[in-house]
Amino acid sequence: MPARDIILVTLIAGLLPLCFFRTWIGLLVWTWMAFMNPHRLTWDFAYSLPFSEWVAMATLGGLVFSSDRKPVVWTRETILFLALWAWFCITTLTAMYPEAAWGQLERVSKIFLMSFLLIPFFQDRRRIRVLLLVVAGSIGYYGLKGGIWALLTGGENLVLGAPGNTFISTNNALALALNMCLPIFFYLAKEEPRRWLRYLLHATFFASIVSVLFTYSRGGFLGLLVVLGVLFLSRQNVLPVVLAALLLCLLAFGFAPQKWVNRIDTIVNYQQDGSAMGRLTAWSVAFQLATDNPITGGGFWSIINGQTYRRYLPDYALEDSPDAHSIYFGLLGEHGFPGDTRPRTRRTRLGLELRSDAPGKHHRLPGHRNVCQLRVLRPRLPGVHRLRPSEGARRPAAHPSAPGGRHQHGTARALCREGKEATAAATGLGQVKRPCAG
Q1: Nearest Cα to 282, choosing from 329, 318, 317?
Q2: 233-254, pLDDT tens digit by residue?
Q3: In DSSP terms, which residues pair with 159 in a beta bridge?
Q4: Which residues 6+ apart lie within 8 Å of 418 measured at CB?
Q5: Collapsing DSSP states into helix, strand and coil, what is residue 321?
Q6: How many CA atoms does the CB half-sphere of 386 hold within 13 Å?
Q7: Mind listing the pLDDT tens digit for each residue in 266-325?
Q8: DSSP 407
Q9: Which residues of 289-319 are buried (b: 16+ CB within 10 A; e: fewer)?
């Protein structure tokens, strides 16, 4: 009897009417489905059911009758957000591989639509906090579970995300998502009045650090050091917790198996590592592609197609291609220099606006400004990944019950905004192309 499947289907069926009559609840349920992918934790018929589509349809259907939405806050960041989507449409018209590009544009457009709807429905403190709790709970589940599993097994195997075509199916993607959510765990716990939830958020914070370490992702490890360093230097009395987190990292070095130490050592000698050199090759191809097509680039999926590599590297013999693992080179190659400039501008303006606030200025969302600052910073850290549909999107994915020595969990990305109207929006991202350790 597939108990998990029955429970999940019953739960979603019960939530659909609520999603229809309460649009903001539907957006929360959609966020939960997009970030956590709970259907990937089942074992039978619910594993491949399109729950997110069902929730989206109910939410959009009830949008017409919704009376609690507020006007969209038209800021520079909002306009840049929509401009980026419009540019994706333009570059898809001239894409090198139209069939693949149109399929990816459809996927991206769905994410942009649901993300944009968060703006008119989440403009007050209570709803924004609930939204952040949903994000924290969705990704924190895998951080808490993975941290406990890594400690119990001695860190011998990779901590991975949920199998199949999910947002955090690989070690690199999971490490990135957890690093981005560490400040959310911490600041939510700092403001949480309920003791049990505060302890749970702190436990998730520490366990997620362990999970990042034992994803064996080198980029995730470097990003973790920077995130903890920024928390250490913040002015929000985080010193005791950050010191404890750093101590936890030091304990991990003494606790970790030798193969983990060897893996991290390759950061220094990257010239001798095939994965690192493959990324440099991918960056070079992406830049050459953008140079040949400076306005529109090659379109979606152009820099991960083996034909593109054979075009610029005649001696390239592999059927597949290395992954750039870089949002900057990915956007540059696929959408040209304008496509790479828009997200950089949006993040830069948001970061400058957040930094320009006076330290003593009253905020309607105390602490959340720091979350936004760290989330703006994290994509600029070492090891930032180009998030793509996982290997399961193109090849049959292994069922979670299949035998194997790797623990599988189930990204996120987020768009955070705090302005005069205290608006914040959080969205889901794609994931890396293949589960190669980073």
Answers
A1: 329
A2: 776 667 767 777 777 777 777 7
A3: 407
A4: 354, 363, 365, 368, 369, 372, 424
A5: coil
A6: 24
A7: 887 766 666 777 778 888 888 999 999 999 999 998 888 888 888 888 776 665 566 777
A8: B
A9: bbeebeebbbbbbbbbbeebbebeeeebeee
